[in-house]
Write a structure and sequence with these properties.
This protein is of the alpha+beta class. It is 26% helix and 25% strand. An 8-stranded mixed sheet has the order 14-15-18-19-25-21-22-28, with no helix packed on it. Strands 1, 2, 3, 4, 5, 29 and 30 form a 7-stranded mixed sheet that branches. Strands 6-13-12-11-10 form a 5-stranded antiparallel sheet, covered by helices on one side. Helix 12 packs parallel to helix 14.
């Protein structure tokens, strides 16, 4: 009997669960021009379909739809296998009159779309074709772009047969207008010979019709392209009407709502991108063009061709396809095998990139992305930087170990006591080689132990440069400069910042102050502006305000400005690089001032500046020799670096500078006790929460027709099946 009671309970539970767990869908509204508000009891995928037309999508517990035509509005909500449907009738409010005559179109043009550009965008939403706009200029429609049929080919528009002389976004339409968008091979051609046309006829009640000739999807034959070597080929894609929609667009950003697996063509970047998305549920994808600026690019060791941020607010997979100009690769003395896609995730990660094809002007690449962040399409440098395991670097490090003193500090071989500044420089060099300075011990003492003992005695003697150098050393070692032996060196250095942004009394103190403060995340924009104001007419920088330019301070200024956020391609950086080039001698090396002998310190500063600015030092040549070649030529057999061919002075400083430079580590050096600053990606899926849609408007109550909720079989079906199986077992036992 008890067993029968259990069976009865299971059967009742299975029946009840089908009714109590149904998705709740509430709808209010039902008039033209007024919101239809929808709410559900849990996050759901909500679909609006007006008069069985193009569906509009939202996600969340609430959504809003504004109808602009009368007829039947179907609303469907789907969540976790549950499904609810409502159908309501959209009507005009009795007190409102729309006017109009007997004629009318299939669609309605809202008031905020009543320009030549707005009508085109509305048509694209309804018919599902793409429109690429740059400012007020239409670059492409339906996958057909300017310059596809010659340098002067592109899109034009006319209204009632006339060609307006104003941007399409400024031309206001009137009822009865006929708008024509057409593609011409040459500006000045009329529409009669246009191979592609979109005709939009507007009626007196602001309804309109759309005629597309020829029918989409459009294709363009290779023979039609003509001589367009200056135009970058764009990956071709014709989006389906129900796969995605454009949510937001600016000059530097595109944001899409992706409904299902699809391909999206994005031209917000100089290099066109094709995103092929594989998603399990609706998601938002955002592509934003970025500039290659800031100290995070110091470890890239490649020339960026394109920089962009790619975000997907839900787990999924993206295949990214892009072209690279063969001419650009020739300029960089590079091949297709040097092209990489890299992602920044605290460090640069190389994404496996496949060469998928080529034509006469471009190579085509593709890469699979599963985690989203800042990306760079780049050309990796050849023969630079030198690897940490390279024999020349290892010999230099062994020599450096040999001059470490018993107290843990460092000094030149001919000096009796450890040098406070020399030890700070050594810490930066050790960290740049991927080694932990704390592990470099002599007589049980590390260089950090030496600093700990010396700081209390030297603190009162320190100035701006000392504060900056100790911050850079501690940051490179992974220590906290805000609390080292109870001293906050960051606050001490900030106390040297003047009202106008100058740090200390000189240009070179400001340079080092910017490098140090930026290494710990402090705001330095005011100091950067002051430093920029000190650039001389020749493009260089001096060590003191009003002084003549020199190459070492110019190289240091380049690093400081970029670390402080100045873009690599800015005028001030480019002028400084042009000046720096004047310091390269015939032997390939760099000098402190024009006409002086090349030396290891100037070589090192120049190499670090070039890396910071995104220039391959191995290609920075005078004749056949690069600045890297010259610096390597100054290394002695025991591993240390000479000052110059004729002098072997201050070998400790020359060697630590050379180590950092040859490893491609500009200032500020960051702690990275690993084998490489660029690693190969290990795929991992990131999960984030989707943001509910707040409002959607698209063309197409108190009284509505209710359709019974539909539900995917789930827990209640399993209970029923279990009950039936148990009954069968009971009968067998009898």
């Amino acid at each position: 009997m008890r067993f029968k009671h259990v069976l009865s309970f299971l059967l009742i539970l299975s029946i009840l669960s089908s009714s109590v767990s149904a998705l709740s869908l509430d709808v209010t509204g039902g008039y033209i021009g007024e919101p239809v508000n929808v709410s559900v009891d849990k996050d759901a995928f909500i679909i609006f379909r007006m008069n069985n037309g193009t569906p509009i999508y939202a996600y969340g517990k609430e959504a809003k739809f504004i109808p602009h035509v009368t007829g039947e509005l179907r609303i469907e909500a789907i969540s976790d296998g549950e499904r609810a449907v409502r159908v309501i009738q959209i009507a005009e409010k009795p007190e409102e009159e729309t006017g109009g005559g007997s004629e009318g179109g299939a669609y309605y043009l809202p008031s905020d779309y009543r320009t030549a550009l707005g009508a085109l965008l509305k048509a694209s939403e309804l018919m599902g074709f793409s429109v690429e706009v740059s400012g007020n200029y239409v670059r492409g429609i339906g996958g057909i772009y300017e310059k596809y049929m010659g340098e002067t080919s592109g899109w034009m528009y006319s209204v009632n047969g006339d060609t307006p002389m104003v941007p399409a976004s400024d031309y206001e339409l009137n009822p009865g207008d006929t708008l024509l968008w057409y593609f011409v091979r040459n500006y000045g051609d009329d529409s009669s010979s246009a191979p592609y046309k979109i005709l939009i006829r507007i009626y007196s009640d602001w309804s309109f019709d759309i005629q597309i000739s020829p029918p989409m999807p459009w294709r363009i034959e290779e023979a039609q392209i003509g001589e367009t070597s200056g135009a970058t080929p764009t990956p071709e894609v014709t989006p389906e009407a129900e796969t995605f929609s454009l949510l937001n667009a600016t000059e530097e950003m595109r944001k899409f709502l992706v409904i299902q697996n699809t391909s999206i063509e994005v031209e917000v970047t100089e290099i066109p991108l094709l995103l092929s998305l594989n998603i399990s549920s609706p998601a938002e994808v955002t592509v934003k063009r970025e500039r290659a600026s800031g100290k995070i690019f110091n470890d890239l060791h490649a020339t960026p061709l394109e920089c962009f941020d790619l975000e997907l607010n839900r787990s999924g997979k993206v295949i990214l396809s892009f072209p690279v100009s063969k001419e650009r690769l020739e300029e960089l003395n590079a091949s297709a095998h040097d092209v990489s896609l890299m992602k920044f995730d605290g460090r640069w990660i190389r994404i496996p990139t496949e060469l998928s094809g080529e034509n006469q002007t471009h190579y085509f690449f593709s890469a699979e992305i599963q985690n989203f962040s800042l990306f760079v399409i780049a050309v990796e440098w050849k023969n630079f930087p030198i690897g940490k395991e390279d024999e020349r670097i290892q010999k230099a490090l062994e020599w450096l170990k040999g001059i470490q003193r018993d107290d843990g500090g460092f000094a030149n071989p001919d000096e009796e006591k450890s040098s406070f500044s020399g030890t700070s420089w050594a810490i930066m060099a050790i960290s740049s080689a991927g080694e932990d300075p704390e592990s470099w011990k002599k007589n049980g003492n590390s260089p950090l132990d030496y600093l700990r003992r010396e700081i209390p005695e030297r603190l009162d003697e320190m100035g701006t440069i000392d504060y900056a150098r100790i911050i850079l050393a501690l940051s490179a070692a992974g220590e906290d400069p805000r609390d080292f032996e109870g001293v906050n060196f960051v606050e001490l250095l900030k106390g040297k910042v003047k009202e106008d942004g100058q740090i200390g009394d000189y240009i070179h103190t400001t340079i080092w102050g910017i490098l140090a403060l930026s290494s710990v995340g402090e705001e330095v924009s005011k100091s950067v502006e002051w430093l920029k104001s000190q650039q001389n007419e020749d493009g260089g920088f001096s060590w003191v305000p009003g002084g003549e330019s020199d190459f070492d301070d110019t190289a240091a200024a380049i690093q400081a400005l970029i670390a402080g956020g100045e873009p690599r391609d800015s005028e001030v950086i480019q002028r400084a690089l042009e000046y720096l080039k004047k310091g390269q001698n015939e032997d390939g090396g760099m000098s402190y001032e024009e006409g002086l002998q090349s030396n290891a310190a100037s070589d090192s500063w120049a190499i670090q500046a070039l890396v910071s600015a995104g220039v391959n030092p191995a290609e920075w040549k005078k004749g056949e020799r690069s600045v890297v070649d010259h610096l390597l030529g100054l290394q002695e057999e025991d591993g240390h670096f000479r000052y110059s061919e004729n002098y072997d002075s201050n070998p400790g400083y020359m060697t630590v500078c050379a180590i950092m430079a040859l490893l491609g580590e500009p200032h500020p050096v960051k702690p990275d006790f690993t084998e490489s600053s660029i690693i190969q990606e290990t795929p991992a899926v990131e999960r984030t929460k989707i943001t509910p849609a707040q409002e959607l408007q698209k063309t197409p109550s108190e009284e509505f027709q209710e359709t019974p909720s539909e539900k995917t079989p789930g827990f209640e079906v399993a209970l029923a099946i279990l009950s039936i199986l148990l009954i069968s077992l009971m009968r067998k036992k009898r």
